[in-house]
Amino acid sequence: MASSSAYGPSRHAGACLLARVSALYYLDGCTQADIAQRLRLSRPKVSRLLRAARESGIARIVVSPPQGVLVTLETELETRFALREVRIVPSSIGESPESARRQLGAAAADDLARSARAGHTIALAGTDLVAAMIDAVRPMVASRVSVVQGAGWERAQASQRSLMNLVVDLARRIGGSAVVLPVPSLVESEEVRRDLESDPQIQAALGALDALDTLYTEIGSPLPDGVPADDSRAAMGHIAHRHFDHRGHMLGKAVDGPVVGLTVDQLRRARHVVALAQGPARAPVIAAAMQTQLVGTLITDEPTARAIAALPLPREDDVNE
Fold it and tell me: How confident is the prediction for the chain on average, in pLDDT?
């Protein structure tokens, strides 16, 4: 009985100490060193008490995201596709696609500001969404950063700004150097591709992609010419002109054609691949791209993210096929 009585007050005193240390640290803003001096404890002891307070439930940390931050949906997509990060731009009622594109570009520009380091190599592959990112980039000095064109130019240029121009523009804004590919992304034959890649300037540009730190890319969806829609090789979409099917399997040269630009191996070696995607109707294409395991970060808008989350999970036979 005496043992139980002695234990009770001791346990209460311990809980009181945990509560007091927690209040000083989390509510009053005291540092661990301040608390150690004030309560005549060692700093490691304060650290252990704070950990014990969290584990026992005396101190509970509650994260209250600001309105418009879609943490639950982001986490759901990160888990589903094994991504490092998903960034979802919240939407407003009646918001135009152009406005959403600007916000998406701003989110990508934030990623660039966080990740760019001296000596890094950054590649671009895309048009409109990549342009929105560059427009949102604040001038900065990123010494010894190379901005590389990840694929050649398009024969049918839909955007007013070519990828080459975007590469030069970003390099100027961040004080880096531009490395361009002054050739088409898709050429007539493998022989033509090999001849082009023997040029020293082209060799240097493609070689810069071997040690790629970051790629900002859009997810393309056009079906390659000559491949019927019901063909088993039919492409769901492409990343830098490297095509994948609905399961995220890369389809290879037979579907890609003679591409001048990033190879699949270079994509796999890149440390940080960021996909920019917009459009709920394109949700199946984006989901398939996430299954390639080439992408680490997805930046998209809220309607698109919700459309992706609403897609059925792949069947086991699809995954293992």
Answer: 87
The pLDDT tens digits for 138-158 are 988 767 899 999 999 887 666
Question: Is 214 within 8 Å of 270 (Cβ atoms)?
Answer: yes
CA distance 59 to 52: 9
| β-pair partners for 151 | 261
2-56 and 71-320 in the same fold: no
Q: What is the CATH number of domain 2-56?
A: 1.10.10.10
Q: Which fold has domain 71-320?
A: Rossmann fold (3.40.50)
Residue type at 67?
Answer: Q
DSSP string, 144-169: T-EEEESB-B-SS--SSS-HHHHHHH
List, for residues 78-95, the tens digit of each pLDDT value: 999 999 999 999 987 778
Question: What is the DSSP secondary-structure string of 96-148?
Answer: -HHHHHHHHHHHHHHHHHHH--TT-EEEEE-SHHHHHHHHHPPP---TT-EEE
Identify any residues that bridge with 242 across adjacent strands, giving them in sequence order.
Answer: 239
State which amino acid sits at residue 222.
Answer: P
Nearest to 108 by CA among 121, 127, 125, 89: 89
Say if residues 273 and 297 touch (Cβ distance below 8 Å): yes
Q: Domain residue spans in the chain?
A: 2-56, 71-320
pTM of the model: 0.77
Structure tokens at 215: 């790629």
Tokens found for residue 89: 């731009």
Residues paired with residue 246 on neighbouring β-strands, in sequence order: none
Torsion of CA 136, 298, 257, 269, to 10 degrees: 100
pLDDT value of residue 165: 95
